Amino acid sequence: MPSRKFHGKTRTGCIACKARHVKCGEERPLCNNCRRRNTACEYLADNAKQNETSSEASSSMDKAPEIDRFDSLDLVLMHRYSTSTSLHMFPAPESPRIWQVEVPLVAETHAVLQHGMLALAAMDLACVAAARGDGASMAKFRARGLLHQQIALPIFREMLMVNEEDEQKQNVVFLFSAILVIVAFSSALSAKTRPNLEEIINLFVLFRGPRAMWEQHQNGANKELVTALFPKDESVESSLGLLALQSRRNSPGFPIHPDLDEVCAEALSQLRQARTVQRWYPQDVRAMAWFPALVSENFMQQVHEHKPMALKVLLEYVSVLAHFQDRWWISLWHRILSSAIHDVVKAEQLTLPRLSASGPHG
């Protein structure tokens, strides 16, 4: 089976199309994609593009951006980040200190985090505006958030190309890869139209970034950072290995079905492990990231092809998302995913299989 390209790269075009990883027709003042989706359509200013090019050429990723990049709206965003957004990122006890205190300190010398912080705050405010039905404010904050994301991305890509040994820079890369996931999730919450299943599959690819950073530097600075953001209980950890074995195929209670192939069975096993982590660590949002970060390309290909069994397994993931709906950037995502799957089922007149447990422990 040929490998699937989950998203194409677009280096020009409007901010919204870049964020959704789709080709932009660059029609002015409103591209056809934004016109069809009824979303705000803005383009990076020429001077912003020049600043990005200059930044890359001079390797200034460790320096603060020019002051004229920021305006009064960014002051509003910085206030929001400091007083609210940073306090509600992750539920771990150390999370507010890291995001409210440590990240701004590191951002003094890392422009990628400066723009990341502002993008987070903008998306936070866009979600607030969306919840109260303020379309104008929602569009304003969402567009600014996507703008800061797009300014930061070239800096981030440059950092990825360097085999960096500096522990602080490793942390910066890890943090911004997490920021990208949060911005992507929250931007969907503040859009006028909900993402379809194809767009959700593209978004899931972002979860592999923090996972790769963790695997690459798990014995270095990232380990300390991850431990602070996602604390573990040693008495619980000793039991998780056994529970993980019980989540595998052929174990008592594992669902059975004649159409459950190895690809979907492995995805279902990973989903059951995520639920196990969620039960023992109900405040650990990594349980939400576990499934999209670990499922195989073959499973995502089956979802893309709208195979009923793959859609059924993906639908089971909705309950994991629902558990974390109190996080501002997750919120209604369980409904978004469920609706996208059911839209496909209805449009193509599919019948999703029913999974029955293989034993008395299902």
From TrEMBL:
Which keywords belong to this entry?
A: Nucleus
Under Pfam families, the record lists:
Zn_clus
What are the Zn(2)-C6 fungal-type domain coordinates in residue numbering? 13-43
Look up keyword Nucleus and say if it applies.
yes
UniProt-recorded Gene Ontology molecular function terms? DNA-binding transcription activator activity, RNA polymerase II-specific; zinc ion binding
InterPro entries recorded = Sterol_Uptake_Regulator, Zn2-C6_fun-type_DNA-bd_sf, Zn2Cys6_DnaBD
Protein's name in the database: Zn(2)-C6 fungal-type domain-containing protein
Keyword Manganese carried by entry: no
